Amino acid sequence: MNVSLILIILLIGAIATFLSGDKLASKVALLFSLVTLGCASVLVNHFLGGIDISLNNPWILQPNVSFALKADGLSLAMVLLTASLTPIIIFSGFGNNFESRSVGTKNFYALVLFMAFAMTGTFLAADGLLYYIFWELALIPIYFIALVWGNGDAEERKKAVVKFFIYTLGGSLFMLVAFAYLYTKAGSFLLSDLTKLNLSATEQTWIFFAFFLAYAIKIPIIPFHTWQAKVYQKAPTIGTMLLSGIMLKMGLYSVIRWQLPIAPLAAKMYMPTLIGLSIAGVIYGSIVALRQKDLKKLLAYSSLAHVGLIAAGCYTLTEAGLSGAVSQMIAHGFVIVGLFFAAEVIFRRFGTYKIDEMGGVRSQASKFTSMFMILVLASVALPGTFNFVGEFTVLYSLSQVNIWFAVLGGTTIILGAYYMLKMFQNVMLGETNTKVFAEVTTSEAVIFVILIAFLLFYGLYPKPIVDLVNPSIKEILTQINRFN
Amino acid sequence: MNTLIAISALGVFCLIAEIFNLRKALVPVTILGLLGILGSTLHFYTIAELSSDYNNMIFADKYADAFSSLFILLTIFLVAMSHDVYKEHQTKISDYVAIKVFLLAGAVAMVSFSNLSMYFLGIETLSIALYILAGSSRLDIKSNEAGMKYFLMGSFASGFILFGICLIYGTFGTFDLKEITEFSGALDKAIWFSIGVSLITIGMLFKIAAVPFHFWAPDVYEGAPSLVTATMSTLAKVVAFASLYKLLAAMNLFPTVQFQNIIVVVSILSMTVGNIMALRQQNVKRMLAFSGISHAGFMLMTVLSIANSANNLLYYTFAYALAGIAAFAVVISVTKDKGNEDTSNFNGLGKTNPLMAAVLTMSLLSMAGIPVFAGFFAKFNLFTQTIQAGYLVVVIAGVINSIISVGYYFKLILAMYTKEPAAEKQATPFVYYAVGVVAILLNVAIGLYPTVISNLLK
Fold it and tell me: Rounded CA gap, B219 and B215, in Å?
């Protein structure tokens, strides 16, 4: 039994969903995503029991490419994140109708599962070219999800989505060139071979920035973020959840897994610039979020601020920074999915994402208000939530590099509290809106409860996740420090 | 050698079939015959019989057999579509099919020649067949214009090639490729040799429509009947490239820096000009013509590491031609009753005909070089090889062009999935589904197992 099982289940799930017809599609998709989650949990148990669940098969001889999947704590943590968010995301779509558009529901859910397949593959791949293939593959489903099932004006949506596609593809192609160059040096694409290379500082710089272009666009780090807000706004909420909850983690994960160990000298040389750019994203995202009138756009910019901090944590090259970044990646995944789902819940009742037109929810739906409140507080890293653990560790690692980075990075908490609470006030409190706001349904509540339970549980007891991830972080740090 | 004879015999059979009134059976029998020839070619490939026939006019090595197989495969697809395309002109069908088979004979001669006179015979057989096909829609003024234009420009290019061959003969006193390879290895060669090679290269760059010899391509592609455009943009382009590669490899040219610089410039120009012009096109056939120009630029990269990139070229041509055939199967089936080939004809195809829309989407993704489709590995192998040869600039130009190309490939995809359909759903003959689906499945298969193709020339 090895990790390829997860990929096989997801791929079969996507095909089965496509074949099951429009009526059953959502249920079949949910079933397969739950099976995936179960399978992933079993595999993690095997892994913790010391069983080797990695895989390495030769695939293509010329060029030398292997079908290699590496299961260590870091990749399994990300696989678990994907496997647990996918059923939640699929389930959150149950209240919506995806049939009205030109292409049927079955295609929608099949694409969601296919995207989960590609993202899981990206997290597991231990061969550069295989990794690249999965990385690109994840782009195709989200492109169609946003394009066909998105909301808003069709022309504007088209522009936003095509820009997103060309941007990300452009960045990735430079990564491909970097891989091609590395291949000429190492004779293979295996991660274990690439991290042993003794490249000169100049070579590393070029490779580092080729990778950086791909990742900075995906994460996004300013000034490569311009695609983000529009796409988050125009995509259907499920697409936005996939993008913000999992897909941008692909970029952050790849920084830790590929970019830093392959070109550590460059990472050290440009550390202040990289951290500076990331923190600039934190401040920029927070300030822009302050002025947003559209709930989804506000959440998009808040996401920009949070991932900026995570990226800064990665580029500190310290153990605290990397492990905090991973924790925060997981925490942010859960919280942002919850917040976008809350936006969707509001949209189902008010029919708008405009903050101006909301208000007066608390008096009508007290349960929803409290659940939304907890998510808002988790997002601003209130102690006791998992976000606090991650954010605090990252800030600590920043203070080790330079105290001013920590101070500036800390603004995410202050500014975040300000815009999130202001948003909460405008959306939930205030005068009674003329429109009726029904209390959350059971199925909606289930999603909120699962997400909140996760955030609170690991907020109080983060040890399992930290213990899972830390051995691989240590291994990556030895690779990073091999030039010293 | 057997391949060439068998193909010519099949062509003659097509003509005779007309006399015996076998029109109905013509297409299936031709396809069966071609499949048989494909099988025997692959057989000769596997037993690795190096046959040299007719005073060394033809030399069938692995390179020749592998490329011949590709040409035969493409011809099978093209002939299969003929039946429906020419159903209005039943009386002409045997002529058109016969011309296609003779075209294939020319194509095979162009990769298995071992003597420059045979090479020229191959070019002329192929070109004359194409001139006729381009003008084959007799009552359509555009088709007439395309045929005339292609004929004038093409014969001019043939003239260049012939002149080049003469100069090479003047230098070494032989047409034989092996002897030329031997002599051209010497350090001091007469100036005639370089001039001759340049003239041949110019002629062939014209045939593959590389910038700055590309001006004929968009007009001819647009004017010619769609099936002929498919032939020109897949089969003819691939043939011209394979023979240019073989010729240049035999001429020992790789040590000259000047020559490589020219190739670098032509390659970058072709990619860039082709892509930028393609962005502005509304007509799908013109768009594919410009996209073909940019693909010619990509293929030219193989010339930069000519000693060991034959398998990359083979793989690229497979990927490009299979995606092209699949795309044209959809284009022909969608536009055949429309009178024009504007992108607007594809509006809402995702709704009216999801399967055809999926085939076209996949073939465009392959041309754009997105993974799991063969186009990805084709470009990737090319990039790796070119980096190894030390031409990072060309690779970066290639990458930037891959990004640009997404812009126009996606214009079609957007039209299919986001616009409302204009017309009611119309029935599509089975053969287009068959050709489109088989071609794109082959494309995906070699994308998943690239070794199948790239090992052929080991």
Answer: 8
- In the block, residue with structure tokens 């601020």: A305
* pLDDT tens per residue, range A153-168: 778 888 888 899 988 9
The angle that helices B257-279 and B392-418 make with each other, rounded to 10 degrees, is 20
Asked if B451 has any chain A CB less than 8 Å from its own CB, the reply is yes
The answer for residues whose C-beta is within 8 angstroms of residue A258's C-beta and 6 or more apart is A128, A131, A191, A194, A211
Distance, CA of B413 to chain centre:
24
Q: A96 by DSSP, 3-state: which? A: coil
Could you please report the per-residue DSSP string of A31-59? HHHHHHHHHHHHHHHHHHTT----EEEEE
Sole residue written with tokens 């109905």: B24
Structure tokens, B50: 């190096």
Secondary structure letter of residue B344 according to DSSP: G
Task: Tell me which residue in A62, A158, A183 faces B455 most closely, judged by beta carbons.
Answer: A62
Q: Which amino acid is at A240?
A: T
- In the stretch 281-320 of chain B, residues with CB closer than 8 A to chain A read 311
Quote the percentage of chain A above a pLDDT of 70: 98
- pLDDT tens-digit series, residues A321-355: 999 999 999 999 999 999 999 998 888 888 888 88
Please state, in angstroms and rounded to a whole number, the distance separating the CA atoms of residues A378 and A357.
25
Contact A137, B371 (CB under 8 A): yes
Q: H-type helices in A187-247, by residue range? A: 191-194, 201-218, 228-234, 237-241
Per the DSSP assignment, residues forming a β-bridge with A379 are none
- What is the C-alpha separation between A62 and B115, in angstroms, rounded? 32
CA dihedral over B307, B308, B314, B319, signed as positive or negative: negative
Measured between CB atoms, does B441 come within 8 Å of chain A?
no
Give one word for B70, left, alpha or beta, with left for phi > 0 and alpha for psi -120 to 50: alpha
Q: Where are the alpha helices (DSSP H) in A125-247?
A: 128-137, 139-149, 154-186, 191-194, 201-218, 228-234, 237-241
Taking the C-alpha atoms of residue A119 and residue A19, their distance in angstroms, rounded to an integer, is 22
CA A202/CA A196 separation, integer angstroms? 17
Cα first-last separation, chain A:
39
Q: What is the pLDDT of residue B49?
A: 64
d(CA B385, CA A133): 19
The two three-digit tokens of residue B455, written as one number: 């090992």
Is B358 an interface residue toward A (CB < 8 Å)?
Answer: no
What per-residue string of b and e applies to B408-423 under the rule 16 or more CB within 10 Å gives b? bbbbbbbbbbbbebee
Would an 8 Å CB–CB cutoff place A165 in contact with chain B?
yes
Cβ separation of A177 and B418 shorter than 8 Å?
no
* Token digits of residue A138: 């994840």
- Cα B160 → chain centroid: 21
Report the complex ipTM. Answer: 0.84
Cβ atoms within 10 Å of A464's Cβ, excluding its own: 12
**Distance, CA of B71 to CA of B77 (rounded, Å):** 10
CB contact under 8 A, A180 and B383: yes
Domain boundaries, given as residue ranges, for chain B: 270-458
A274, pLDDT greater than 60:
yes
> By the 8 A CB rule, do A459 and A386 touch?
yes
pTM reported for the whole predicted model: 0.90
Amino acid at B103: L
Q: Which of B399, B449, B458 would best serve as a mutation to test chain A binding (most A beta carbons within 10 A)?
A: B399
Q: What is the pLDDT of residue A101?
A: 54
Q: Name every chain B residue with its beta carbon within 8 A of the beta carbon of A99.
A: none
User: B51: part of which helix (H) or strand (E)?
Assistant: strand B51-53
The two tokens of residue B247 are: 């010729």
Q: How many helices (H) and strands (E) does chain A have?
A: 22, 2
